[in-house]
Amino acid sequence: MKLTFLGTGGSFGTPMVGCRCEACTSGNPKDRRLRSSALLETDATCLLIDCGPDFRQQALGMPFRRIDGVLITHSHYDHVGGIDDLRPFCKFGGIDLYADSIAADHLRHSMPYCFDKDKYPGVPDIHLNVIEPHRHFCIGDVSIMPIRVMHGSLPILGYRFGSLAYITDMKTIDDAELPYLAGIEVLVVNALRFDRPHHSHQLVADAICFARRIGARRTLLMHSCHHIGLHDEANKRLPEGFEMAFDGQTITV
């Protein structure tokens, strides 16, 4: 199973429009962060985690193959704004989209034409499936366990795939969720920046504490804004076992 980071940036992306900081003006490709999304693949199955407003750009570098499912963490625009751009992939057949009841309700209201019973020609052929935390399900040969985390006061989903966990936009997690993360070896988790606390996102120190709490052997930090600084410099500040993820990076689990 391999995970490819399609985007590792925060809601503005990096470079941020109008900003001239060192990260936003860097020539290092690792400092260019599209909005957060990832592709999880086996030989038989292809899953997309979130589908933000940069998806069209991200898709140009993806294999053009059937998408067997789209896993939504929550319905904020930077995670769902590219759903309409799934249309080319509908060439392979309808696409199942999975979201909790909160995100599903928001999607039906924000882009009803995608989910109406009687769709007009040309809209993406998407089927919305409501899932619940702790209710295990499978898509193809991939086993999925949704878990509940808190994005400030908003309950959202993280996902476990065997020994890999993918969690974005988390601020806190209830102790009752920790057993669902027992045995995680590779953790992908959000870390907005190093300092200046945020009301709904973890900082780097929070992400490190969380990873150590669950015993992850390898942790990749993502959903980072331009305040994280230069990729290479940020990496030097991290302890062993931690690294900044970057767009286009692929890991095998």
SSE diagram, text form:
Layout: E1 2-7, E2 37-41, E3 46-49, H1 55-59, E4 69-71, H2 77-80, E5 95-99, H3 101-110, E6 126-130, E7 137-139, E8 142-151, E9 154-161, E10 164-167, E11 186-190, H4 204-214, E12 218-222, H5 231-236, E13 242-244, E14 250-252
Parallel strand pairs: 3-4, 4-5, 5-6, 10-11, 11-12, 12-13
Antiparallel strand pairs: 1-2, 1-14, 2-3, 7-8, 8-9, 9-10
Summed over residues and divided by their number, the pLDDT gives a mean of 97
Q: Give the quaternary arrangement of the chains.
A: single chain
Low-confidence stretches: none
> Ends: how far apart?
5 Å
Radius of gyration, rounded? Answer: 17 Å
What is the spatial order of strands in the main beta sheet?
A: 6-5-4-3-2-1-14
Number of E-type strands: 14
Biggest pleated-sheet summary? 7 strands, mixed
- Discrete helix count: 5
Secondary-structure element series: EEEHEHEHEEEEEEHEHEE
As a percent range, the share of strand residues is: 25-35%
Approximate shape: globular
Which structural class should the secondary elements be placed in? alpha/beta
- Percentage of residues in helical conformation: 10-25%
Question: Would you write up a description of this structure?
Answer:
By secondary structure, this protein is α/β, with parallel strands linked by helices. Helices cover 14% and strands 27% of the residues. It has helices spanning 55-59, 77-80, 101-110, 204-214, 231-236, and strands at 2-7, 37-41, 46-49, 69-71, 95-99, 126-130, 137-139, 142-151, 154-161, 164-167, 186-190, 218-222, 242-244, 250-252. A seven-stranded mixed β-sheet has the order 6-5-4-3-2-1-14. Strands 7-8-9-10-11-12-13 form a seven-stranded mixed β-sheet. The chain starts with a strand and ends with a strand. The model has no long low-confidence stretch (mean pLDDT 97).
